[in-house]
Amino acid sequence: MMWSRRSLPIRRNHCQRGLIMLGSCAADHVGEYDQKMKNTDLAKQQLQELILLIQKLRAPEGCPWDQKQTSRDIGKYLLDEAYEVLDALEEGDPRHLCEELGDLLFQILFITDIASDAGDFSLTDVMKGVREKMIRRHPHVFGNVTVQSVSDVKENWQAIKLQERAARPDDENIFSHVPRSLPALKRAQKITAIAARFGFDWQSAEGVWEKLQEELAELSAACQTDDPSKREEELGDVLFTLVNLSRFIEADAERALTQTTEKFLRRFAFITDQLSLRGETPGEASFAAMDALWNEAKEKGL
After folding, report:
1. What CATH number does the domain containing 117 carry?
2. What is the pLDDT of residue 24?
3. Which of 77, 81, 180, 198 has the fewest CB neighbours in a 10 Å radius?
4. Count of domains in the chain?
5. What is the pTM of this model?
6. Can you give the residue range of the structural domain that contains 126?
């Protein structure tokens, strides 16, 4: 194709604009990288200062309360802080989440400092260990494994975890890594999921439904007795079966119950507010009046 003299300047202009745009994109990329590096440096500085603060609190001339804390003592607060992080996530408030993550980080660093003084492990060991673990469990990113879906990633993750566990002769129990301190529903869901991976599971949801009907019948029979422990046992069986059902319908049992509890609180708050407008309290109102307000709250989508 022949280019006319008239078309050449236009082509040069297009090239010039393209080079300018390319240069601008490169500059933006460099600027973004520089900002990330600056943020990383600031994070390192703040982390070091937080570690020094903890060490000062635990020093002989520091805080008497902090000096007496053990890892188990702090572990109790760690669980509380983790729940507060979850609450902040549900609220969707970035400032509150930032604060709660800071509180959780403080507890983690505190426990690590205690372990470091005891010669058990250091913060370096913690960070090195989790970094190596994440690299091992993401072979599709850091290795030559190819994945086609999120499901493939999950299957690889579980397979690698089993390999890691097999390398530890003292870890023969397949459920040993599930924390006892987990909420009961969450712990049950993890345990049943592990059992399912080893083939101990129903073939379909229909089997779980049948088991649920069986357990409900046994609970009903137990409720006709004078044995509280038997009633509690049968109730546990029903709940455990419901947790199994939650897997089959791809629902998180813990989150489902949490959402329902929050829904109850919203609706009861509506009842309380409406009764207050009438000059009444829940203790004074009849069940029929509160039930009517409950239905009203339901209709409003609360």
Report:
1. 1.10.287.1080
2. 57
3. 180
4. 4
5. 0.60
6. 42-134
